[in-house]
Amino acid sequence: MRFHSPAIQYFHAVRRTGSIRAAARVLNVASSAVSRQILKLEQEVGSPLFERNARGLTLTTVGEMLARHVMNVLQDLDRFRSDVASLSGAWSGTVSIACIESLTESVLPDLIASHRGRARRVSFTIEVKGSSDVLEALSRGEADIGIAMALRHPPDLRQAALKRFRLGAVVAREHPLARRKTVTLEQCLAFPVINALPELSIYHLLQPLIAQLSETPEPAIQANSIDLMRELAARGVGVAFQTQLGINRLSRDSRLVFLPLDNAGSPVWSDLGIYVRAERTLPAYTESFLQELVRELGERERRENAAHPHTP
Amino acid sequence: MRFHSPAIQYFHAVRRTGSIRAAARVLNVASSAVSRQILKLEQEVGSPLFERNARGLTLTTVGEMLARHVMNVLQDLDRFRSDVASLSGAWSGTVSIACIESLTESVLPDLIASHRGRARRVSFTIEVKGSSDVLEALSRGEADIGIAMALRHPPDLRQAALKRFRLGAVVAREHPLARRKTVTLEQCLAFPVINALPELSIYHLLQPLIAQLSETPEPAIQANSIDLMRELAARGVGVAFQTQLGINRLSRDSRLVFLPLDNAGSPVWSDLGIYVRAERTLPAYTESFLQELVRELGERERRENAAHPHTP
DNA sequence: TATAACCGTTGCCGAAACGGCAGCAATATG
DNA sequence: CATATTGCTGCCGTTTCGGCAACGGTTATA
Q: With a threshold of 0.85, does the pTM exceed it?
């Protein structure tokens, strides 16, 4: 089913790989063929699409405009294909997800397992990244659904949902703080703290709050793996911070206790956004999974905020 | 700038014309070429796209799916072209509008005149139709912006705005009703009435209200031209009904008086919807005009409802 | 500084796709 | 029954496409 001119596909491959020869290898064609299609495209548009650096190609402004169009075309072609396929038989296709680490613990595995139980021919690709990389992957058409901290998102993305979860401290059951219902940041900083590195979004949530405090926190462990931080906390090394999304795991893990953070009397929220490219209609199977994801996250938001209500 | 395979364009032409030979004439190619491209497309999709009637071609279900994709591709190509053009120089392109008759009196001519004053290279195509035909033209990709009575719209359309205007009676200055501030339907039906035919949306607004009344209205004039109905009212033939959009003309036309309708103590609203295809990003110049249109209609809605406030 | 590894581009040539012409059978119109 | 229109199909010249090999240029490495 290849009814679009090769130029479109070649251009797309060159944009992704950043080089004509690399694109040719991916496409299983000679590099000369790719080169010629690009040149022909540039001639028809009437303006260069790439800047030729010695090390590869970079998009020009016009090139980025064409990239946007080509992305729209190819993604809509995918949708068309899935529409036709769903006419005669079961759904089939690949849902590609880019998300931050908080989801890997229970939300995504639960959802995907249950979804695969109902639609066996739908496969998944999951890439874990930092929040800004998630949005970037989405913009570049490398993922269908993105889940990231709700920062300002570029206009080519659409926020399909926004869910807020409480940020909290995670400590070992034997930790002095463990008997409290909630904790403040000051209380945590009295103990050794396991900090997130800037690549994790938790860093950007906590840093402004820490900066407001007068005392300088004592040096602590820093890491970029939520899992590692949690395991360190379980071993009593210190206080870790994370959003309240690992509730299943935490309630199963008898070594750990989750303590919602209070800051100046009000909860510290971590806003989770679900994103898709704006200029796009999702294939039916992707849209269906998206709906389930939004529903499930809404469910957890409700449940977890009920488990730790904010009573001023 | 033709970087999409001929099959796409040929398919599009065949869908619009309903026949391969007609499409070939439009495209200035031999009909055999068109026929072959369609056959090739069907072979690649793996399913027939058209039903071959002796008199021409009709889309199959799969064909409609492909038509949707092709429309998305070609409309987005237009947008890309306009983006590139706007990079180097002024906007240029054509805004195609499908709308109901109420707009032709002052809203559209005013807006288009003022817009053309600022952007000379943007041209316009306006087609006046019934409300459902407006939506259909939009769905089929034959118009960029649609303005129609806000009925239930198909899911492939997006309602960019919704404005409500009061429905009212239009009578000659010498008419017995002319001294009132507002009128009820009963009061109007005591006089000869100039009714709209079902092709006008006013018919569908008034019919349910008339049906609620116990008395059967006396036979009256029926017409499908708002202009004609207005001229008849000016000549004292009877009471006409229309939405309050012709305010400029009416206030200039000393022969006529507009009387807002009251029904059971509350105004009778006529909802005007502005529509665009949902799966589409408008070219910059079209988007710009759309914004002005929405702003202008909002302005008139505000102004006219202030001129005839509803005081229960 | 010499060498090797990439990079994009170009000439040449066979293969594939495309489009025009004329003619076919089927169907609708009068 | 005659005529017109429909979509489709061989045939054939033209255009486009892709593979191969080679060229000039830049970058990294020895």
A: yes
